Amino acid sequence: MTGPLHQVLAEVSAGTPTVAEIIRRTGLSDDVVRAALDHLVLSGRITSTKLSLGCPTTGCGTCPSAGGCALPAALGARRPGLVSLALTRPVA
Amino acid sequence: MSESTHPRVTGSVTPETSHPRSAARLAPAKSCCQTPSQVSAGPRAPVVAIVGAPNTGKSTLFNALTASRVTTGNWPGTTVEVSRGVWRATPPASPCTRGGCADGHEESTQDLTVLDLPGAYSLDAHSPDEHLTRELLQEGPVDERPDLCVVTVDASRLAHGLYLVAQVRELPLRVVVAMTMSDVALQRGVSIDSHALAEGLGCPVVTTDPRRRTGLDTLAAVVRTTLAAPVPAPRPTPDTDDALTRDDDRFTWLSAAAEQATVVPGHDRLTLSDKVDRWVTAPLLGPPVFLAVMWAVFQLTTTVATPLQDALDRLFSGPVTDTVMAGLTLVHLDGTWVEGLLVNGLVAGVGMLLTFVPLMALMFVLLALLEDSGYLARAAVVTDRLMRTIGLPGRAFLPLVVGFGCNVPAISATRILPDARQRLLTVLLVPFTSCSARLTVFVMLGTVFFGRNAGTAVFGMYVASVALIVLVGLLLRRTLWRTMGSEPLIIDLPAYHVPTLRLMALVVWQRVRGFLRTASGIIVITVSAVWLLQSVPAVAGQSFGHVGVEDSVYGVVARTVSPVFEPAGFNQWQTASALMVGFVAKEAVISSWAQTYATDQPQPGQSGLLGEHIQAAFQQSSGGHTLPAVLAFMVFLLAYTPCVATLAAQRREVGLRWTAFGVAVQLATAWLLAVAVFQVGRLFW
After folding, report:
1. Among B304, B317, B629, B682, which residue has the least CB neighbours within 10 Å?
2. Residue B54 near chain A (CB below 8 Å)
3. Helical H runs in B451-584?
């Protein structure tokens, strides 16, 4: 029988789209799944990236439309945060 | 412990070197009822190490236990800070716990040396802090390790803290778990049974709140009892060298312990967000829900904003134009090129664009509502699934979502993609996302040609935009990047929440301001340039500012280009010229139309309104197949190069060669699709 880490890793590998979906599919608690994901990130098996629906956080300095931009980066950063998690290497 | 492994002393030192643990004993400060010399834990005092993840209340507990009997400094040879103090461990009912120093308290009080080790999620040594904790608890000589380890665990994130407990329980150490933040867990509807948890972990668990100083006496009693007992047998571990298997064994163990101790298990507590997400992000239901929401947005926008837009249109073509004309007459500039520039150029061009402000504002309000509530994040999941279904990189959905607002930041947002080929492919696809500038043209044409179904027509263009991204993406992948993989991706969705009025107002204002800045900047320049080209005669016998548009440089160039669009049903030179100007910025399509038709004299039977001019142009160029021609025009507008700012962004990200390739792909795709739409459509309409 595989433990929580293997189960969560298998779901990531299978492309399960959200953390909520992993919780539903594995039957593990929210807390355990999130702890497992954090552990997998810390151990380098998956990468975690904060995503923004606004501009990239690199600022407007190099943007050709910075003067008339309708969506400053600072506003994008205030939105509900998305975090993407991706495998760093295939699951054996 | 050897002297070298003790904390560097930053205060004064009490020279108690007889006990191996006290080689560099820190001098304690004076407490409420003790002299400094009495506060010292003494050479034989047991050493208690407090460990735990950051933000679990570890240092708060340390401070509560030691009061001011503390010295802090870097651990020798490291930059890791360690605090050391004396804990006067007094069990419940002792007079000292009530703030007094009654007789007999010394029999019931035991002084302990306490180390506040740096925050550590685990003993896996991912950081210098964790490395030091591992060294002190696991790798140093057994007789130099602490006598007891107190592990602080946040009850609201139980599993996170229990991993460290699992590792510490694998060592020959006495362990007591101090469970903090139970109040936070309760607020989240989670209650932890400390007895059941203790049974699962095989060590005592004490619920404590160091901030309110509750549970400290119980902790003292439990620690003293545990210190008096022999060191328990370590938790058995699997005999394997595979790190993942070992870690998974710990998770299996901690998961079982947490499960039996959590009174309201996490997976039984579906929040409203979870329940809604199960529907709106479902593989089959999610896309239609997303499409229905977006259709409602466009329908609501066009229905509500159209009367306001008409009122503004009447304002600019009536009172504003009349006022400017009156002013020019007053200063004797009527009938000159200045009148042409101001009335036919700026008032007609920029004024027409400004009629879209209510529409854009309403659209931005609705999109901000979706965004701030958290729904757009769900839409991202739906889009992401679609991307991966067709084999495109998962994370590419994000820049494409941004592209529906503006293509320029979307191209910059492709930097989140780790693979250069994925970035390149996404940069080439972003221009096919229907930005808000194109929205103005779609709404105008939708209102003129589709009446009450304008919202559906605009919505159809957004669906077409998604289809275009998918088709072109597949085409490029099948031809240029056959080996590109798409890694699995998981999104951690934020919970839904009630949108903040202030934030929404700020977002809407920022976007409307951006629209107005574009209108007052690049559009004014474009309008002036168009006016100039329309004023310069291309045929002999006419003078500057007194030439029909058709005979101007503008008109002649447009007439040269317009035959290209004959197979697509919109080869009127006025239409072709609008597309040429639209290469600079899509908002300029409308302003150039307004300029062209404002300069032209109305044809017999026409009132002179812009919509009627455009209707007549499409009817004439399409041979009566007006709707297929309009749809073909809208598809062309969707697919060809968005604006020069997007080109500049593309050049910055992928270079001139790929930018030129992208423009070629866009123009070819736009023309082929427009021709296909018209030629197929004319068979039915």
Report:
1. B304
2. no
3. 454-479, 501-520, 522-535, 553-561, 573-582
What confidence tens digit (pLDDT) does each residue in B42-74 have?
Answer: 667 899 999 998 888 888 898 888 876 666 666
- Which chain B residues are Cβ-neighbours of A72 within 8 angstroms? 510
Identify all chain A residues contacting B415, using CB atoms and an 8 Å cutoff.
Answer: 56, 58
The full set of domains in chain B, from first to last, is 3-266 (3.40.50.300)
Q: Which helix (H) or strand (E) holds B432?
A: none
Q: Kindly state the tokens that stand for B442.
A: 């779609």
Q: For residue B51, list its beta bridge partners.
A: B151
Both ends of chain B: CA-CA distance in Å? Answer: 91
Pick left, alpha or beta for residue B391 (phi over 0 → left; psi -120 to 50 → alpha; otherwise beta): left
Give domain limits for chain A.
4-87
Contact across the interface for A82 and B492, Cβ inside 8 Å: yes
User: Encoding tokens for residue A62?
Assistant: 């190099």
* DSSP class per residue in B128-179: HHHHHHHIIIIIS-GGGS-SEEEEEEEGGGHHHHHHHHHHHHTSS-EEEEEE
Region B157-181 average pLDDT: 94
Strands A46-51 and A82-87: antiparallel
CATH number of A4-87: 1.10.10
Lowest mean pLDDT among B85-89, B231-235, B361-365, B492-496: B492-496
